[in-house]
Write the structure tokens for this entry.
Amino acid sequence: MKIAIGADHGGFELKEAIKKHLEEVGGYEITDYGTHSTDSVDYAEIAFKVGNAVTKSDEKILGILCCGTGIGISMAANKVKGVRAACCSDYFSAKYTRLHNDANILCMGGRVVGAGLANEMVDVFLNTEFEGGRHQRRVDQITAIENGTF
């Protein structure tokens, strides 16, 4: 599975912990869109790069984004057409945003969740498939809103 990952300075350390975890688990092809230090950067640029990686590929790619709270970077990512980014800080939300919302980017806050919980959320996010069924209608409605046809 291909993973696009990125963070601003507030999420850098969490991103690095998640990358290490994914490399230890194995089976993932990870592309890191930055940042590569704790030097201040704007999260919108990182969100744009990861959002495009997830939505512009013919292959299935899921994304992981981190900033200080996870909120700003998720707001920016959701401006990329086709992105369904969810800011999560608990296991249940990380699971159900894939199961019911077909989220394609998991966002977390480096100042909100620790590496242990973040890794558990990443694992469940990456290993949960969209349930479809009645939930497909709702995802289609989100897409219609995005396209101005709702």
Q: What stands out?
A: The chain has six helices and five strands. The longest strand covers residues 61-67. The chain has a mean pLDDT of 98.
